[in-house]
Design brief:
There is one protein chain. The chain is mainly alpha-helical and 230 residues long. The protein is built from 12 helices and no strands. The two termini are 28 Å apart.
């Protein structure tokens, strides 16, 4: 969260508009675990190595869905991926880094989907834009709610999601619209907290609502009434 908030300075509402889109689609999550334990040891460069890493990441997701984080071990991951556990440790320091990679790939897919929507659609109002972003968040979490349940409820530590240069199209789209928030830093925190909480609690407590329209509509209404109060 500090990374985004540090960019909110004298520009006030402009910075809120620039950061809001990223906050809605990719809320930050603080982690108390050392970054080295959550990062890959190295990036695969050869096709065979990339296939091994892909298999390990997929195996991690499969075990999380089927058995949960408590039963996730490096030996089980390697066995399911069909590789030697030594190969796993060539690329990842442990299971935490593999789960972090599952999350990173999920965020990457969300960002790509958002960029495609912004490139192919025209938004005439702030409501249309917020509706599209909220719909993307719900759709992404409705694909495999069991996996998101495990990532939300069972992981002891998760990597922070950060703004990236490829988010620029989203930030530019949102920057066209005016908001009425009195405190930019508080606004960022509220939007992050509300959007993150609603979608992730729905994964855990109301998974059926992820594919229904009412919850999305209510979240859009809530955010718009906060942002546009005049």
């Amino acid at each position: 969260m500090e990374g985004l908030l540090s960019r909110v300075s004298g520009d006030g509402d402009k910075n809120v508009r620039e950061c809001l889109c990223c906050q809605l689609a990719f809320p930050l999550q603080e982690s108390g675990m050392p970054r080295a334990k959550l990062s890959p040891r190295k990036t695969p460069t050869q096709e065979r190595s990339r296939a091994t890493v892909d298999a390990l990441v997929q195996a991690t997701a499969d075990i999380l869905v089927r058995d949960g984080y408590a039963k996730l071990t490096t030996n089980r991951i390697a066995d399911r991926a069909g590789v030697n556990v030594a190969s796993l440790y060539q690329f990842f320091p442990g299971k935490e880094a593999l789960v972090a990679e599952v999350l990173r790939r999920h965020v990457k897919e969300q960002r790509a989907a958002a960029r495609e929507v912004l490139a192919t659609r025209k938004f005439n109002t702030l409501k249309e834009l917020i509706q599209a972003l909220v719909a993307l968040g719900f759709a992404a979490h409705a694909v495999n709610p069991k996996l998101h349940h495990a990532l939300t409820e069972e992981m002891p530590a998760r990597p922070a999601r950060k703004w990236a240069p490829e988010d620029a199209p989203m930030l530019e789209a949102l920057g066209r619209f005016k908001t009425d928030v009195p405190d930019p830093e508080l606004a960022l925190w509220l939007i992050d907290t509300v959007a993150h909480a609603v979608i992730h609690r729905a994964v855990v407590e109301r998974p059926d609502a992820l594919s229904q329209g009412l919850l999305q509509e209510e979240l859009v209404t809530l955010l718009l009434r906060y942002l546009k109060r005049k």
